[in-house]
Amino acid sequence: MSLKYTSVVIQDIWNSEVVQFLDCLLTDYWSTVGITSEIEARLGKITEGGFVSGVSQKFFYAMRDYLKSRNYWTDDNGAPVKPEVDDEYAVVFDQSVRVVAVSESGTYTIKEVVRKTTTEKRTFLFDENMYSLRISLAEEAPLTEQDKAAYSQAALSYLMGSPSAYRVNLVRHRERITFNFRNDYRLDMTATQSAESMADVHNAPTVYEVECELCLPKHGHCETLFLYLNAILHRMFTQPEAVCMPPVASRFHPGYVAKLEAASHGQVVLKGDVELLNSEGYDDSLIAWCKKRNPEGKAILPFQEAKQLKWSLAHPCSLPTLQGLSFPTDASPCDCALVINDGGMIRTESGEVFHCCIWQYEGVALLTNANQSSSVKRSANPS
Question: Where would I find the mRNA triphosphatase Cet1-like domain in this sequence (predicted)?
Fold first, then answer.
């Protein structure tokens, strides 16, 4: 486990070891992040004893009040929600088993039973007037349903004043509010009191903690890293847009994501007509229109109409990866010449309108305009 402290200039963060570390974590744990692995960033300070989590009370409440004033937070199902503070108790047993219970009106409701171990962590230092950043990865060790039930009962008994069946190592009283941004990331703001027993916890000093957890990724690798680090910079460090956005040339810039998406679809720029080969499963009215106007009865879609849609390679020879590499496909040379349409509408010179579904038409992109002569004649004699 690395305990290295790394100095970083906040203005250069997108070219720093912060990005390198996050990139490695996402690469190594991509399939488990948000499931059994947890990537978390928290603010704190470096002391002689190491990193200490926590911010000032003034910073904490100013940030919390600002976040509460925003209206873009959601619940786990994506529905808009106004976050509220939960009164929680976390009871920590041997083997890092933690039971979290929510207290309300004198009763306790179990929120989670987990056993997590931090396996990777790095601490980054910025300007002396700024908080330090700890980024860590914790992995969850599985617990059987029987174990979860036993630990839950032990925690409830302990909180209600009865002896616990397991030894209690630590008790935390937490006033926590969670800001969930579209299930991309969660900001947890927690006023925490910690003690070795329930009897002492309310007399313990309060630590004000700010954490940002990455949710289960639903975007690509680069976009996920951008969203997460942008949230850390924007929400936790309140940095200006110039710092929150990576350089335009960076593969983590949103513009790169758009280019990658275009590359993954193999978008092509037409230079001529498109010979439509099929419209399987759909109405063939556009193909019929093309054949009717072509002297040879071929389904040639004129360039003037074809360019109204976006076209991509139907069977690319290779596909880009999320790491900027590529891998070959098993497409044959003949297949690699085929194009397929994106959804849209075609309006002909004579006023006909064709609505085209995505991937409705597969065809061959021609290098010339096969109907150029007939198109010129129509233009000269519109009747």
Answer: 49-214
Q: Which residues contact 32 (CB under 8 A, 6 or more apart)?
A: 139
Q: Is the pLDDT of residue 62 over 80?
A: yes
Distance between alpha carbon 244 and the CA centroid of its chain, in Å? 16
Which residues 6+ apart lie within 8 Å of 141 measured at CB? Answer: 96, 115, 116, 117
> What tokens does 194 get?
């910690």
In eight-state DSSP terms, residue 235 is I
pLDDT in tens, 216-260: 988 878 889 999 999 999 999 999 999 999 998 888 888 876 666
- What is the rounded CA–CA span in Å between residue 99 and residue 117? 14
Nearest to 274 by CA among 356, 337, 349: 337
d(CA 35, CA 29): 10
Look at residues 243, 97, 223, 233 and name the one whose alpha carbon lies nearest to residue 170. 97
Tokens at 227, concatenated = 């969203």
Please provide the DSSP assignment of 135-175 as one string.
EEEEEEPP--HHHHHHHHHHHHHHHTTSPPSS-EEEEEEEE
Tell me the longest C-alpha to C-alpha distance in the chain.
97
The closest alpha carbon to 274, from 288, 283, 287, 292, belongs to 287
Q: Judge contact between 100 and 110, C-beta under 8 A.
A: yes
3-state secondary structure of 282: coil
Contact at 8 Å (CB) between 190 and 126? no
| Rg, the chain, Cα only | 29
Residue 80 burial (10 A CB sphere; 0-12, 13-18, 19+):
exposed
> Distance between CA atoms of 190 and 105, rounded to whole angstroms?
20
Which amino acid is it at 335? D
Counting residues of the chain whose pLDDT is more than 90, the rounded percentage is 65
Residues in the chain: 383
What residue ranges do the domains of the chain occupy? 5-82+114-138+173-260, 265-380
By the 10 Å C-beta count (0-12 exposed, 13-18 middle, 19+ buried), 81 is classed as: middle
**Nearest alpha-carbon partner for 133 in 6, 30, 281, 31:** 6
